[in-house]
Design a protein that fits this description.
mainly alpha, 81 residues, Helix Hairpins
């Protein structure tokens, strides 16, 4: 599995786990210590997701800059066959 694919899977898995943790915490039926552990794990996952999103945003910005700096290419449609 490529690194890009792995990062995407990790982000998606982290997001699913985070959503599950939020649902468990919203129910409010966890003992205090377990709720704190779940909250800590949720904060770790949120930071991880935020980092992944920032990296993705930076990549998009780089691609947009490269696109804006590219030389214009003439449009040469292929004749109909």
């Amino acid at each position: 599995m490529s690194a890009k694919k792995s990062q995407t899977v990790d982000f998606e898995q982290s997001l699913v786990e985070l959503e599950t943790l939020v649902e468990r915490l919203e129910h409010g039926d966890l003992p205090l210590e377990e709720a704190l552990r779940q909250f800590e794990r949720g904060m770790e996952l949120a930071r991880s997701c935020e980092t992944a999103l920032v990296k993705a945003e930076q990549r998009v910005e780089i691609l947009l800059q490269k696109s804006a700096e590219a030389d214009p290419q003439p449009f040469d449609p292929e004749p109909d066959a």
